[in-house]
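User: Please predict structures.

Assistant: First:
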Amino acid sequence: MSTPEVKLITKIIRELSMFLMLHGYEQFSIETDKEKTLTTFRVKVKTLDEKTKNTMLEKLNRAREIEIETYGWQLVGDLDQKSELEIVGSLVDDAKIEEENGHHSIIITRKNPYLKKH
């Protein structure tokens, strides 16, 4: 995995953590699964309020902007203000929230932009 991709993935994790903590969530976990073609982030939290769910889905389901790949990861987390996942949504492909037994899982996917086409 390339160094820029590693940095981008770790900053996405940081932004997700910061977003949740700034919105009052103190118990959550984040798992990543890096495959050749796809990185999946799974954020588990006991319960999300409706406003937070809607905000996350709105911000994370923005259209991905491949051109931001070259500089976007540098912008993530550089500002000392309340995180609203503004740039993260431009760096991922899909986000959904699943609920089971009062617990929520936020599943975010990012296709590997560095794959060579055959």
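Second:
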Amino acid sequence: MHTYTFLRQLADSWVLLAMFGFFASAGIWAYLPSQRRARDDASLIPFRNEDAPKTCSGTCDTCACMADTGKAPHHD
């Protein structure tokens, strides 16, 4: 048997089966209950570097934050 034919048959059968087994194992491992903390941490990656929302001091001339409470904005 020629080397190329042997390697081609090996890749078409056993290597393909081994790659599928690795893929299935990685998928099962990712969803194990013990990996919950890692999944939760990964889901929050987009929000890690967000700045905290700015709070209104109520001192600007066009303060709209006090309109909801019915109070007049604080002006010095």
